[in-house]
Design brief:
The chain is an alpha/beta fold. It has 12 helices and 12 strands. The longest helix has 17 residues.
Length: about 375
Amino acid sequence: MRTTGVGPTLADVRTAAARITGLVDRTPLLALDSRVLLKAEHRQRGGSFKVRGAANAMLARYAGEVVAGSSGNHGIAVAMLGAALGIRVTIVMAAGASDGKAQVIRSLGAGVVQVAGGVAERDRRAEDIAAATGAVLVPSSDHELVVAGAGTVGLEVFEEVPAVSTIFVPAGGGGLLAGVCVAASALSRPVRVVGVEPMSARRYAVSVARGAPTELPPSMTIADGLRGQRPGAVPWPIIRHRVDDLIGVTDDAIIHALGILRRAGVSAEPSGAVALAGALRRGSAGRAVVIVSGGNGVAGDGSTSTTEEPPAELLPASTGESACSSLHRSGRAEESRGRRIAERMQLEERLYDRTDIPRVRSAGDSRGDTDRRAGEARPT
């Protein structure tokens, strides 16, 4: 599935919303407190927002056989849709991908191919399989149709909460963040779009700071769905020109946010808690929406978590200081995005101990290029 070279528009997002009706749910907004709402994509069919982009792509470009690279959630979505539409599916997964998610993919009738390296090697293998078999490649994020489908998350938010001040979006491959950026143009007033990345996988922040797409070595962050190594060709220009801020969060911060969500009854996976971790750190001067991108967390027995959730009012009013009270701070004045993000990254280098970022070597890499830390990135 080749890209057109033209990024999706708001009209494309609206077309996607109409196209995927019936295969995708309109997920609710849950109140975490009086000023913070959670977009509950963990309640989506297939357990994550990924079904939106996959459905839009697979319905618009029907094929008898498809292949996709995935950390898990996109693979589950493609496999689920393949079973429903009678399409043969092969999913390629990188080293360190969730065994539980791989089991779910197989249970849906799809084949699974695993590679020894990271996300970049995974995506290359998926491209090779597509070329060799004639299967249609359905990227997890780097395609106009996938971005437009993901953008329906933002479209729903902006239709229901037009007065939102800031929306926090997890950033992996960048499809969801780019889609929300496009959907934000539906508003007649400005909204701050903030992308949140794991600290060891900041491919978009590094690229924006350097002014060019930059590839990072593989990451082993707990947020397994956000281990992308380089910006996608389609999301990159959208994010570069529209996103208001890109912030990084440590695994400890992700675990903290995950605990808040799970104590509130929200069955998020680590990747689904990243946006909240960013919101707790960055704050918002007004009403904020946090996208809980997925809930395919793996329980201790290897099964996929299916925790039941309570009603929308997740935290009792008597709890005193809100778990998200730090969201109510005023943001500082806007500066140049690239300069601000570069300054933030320099500060983070001083604040955080980078020695806990694992070194990962891709199989067959004799030069050891991927045996570098996330900060030692290279432009592509």
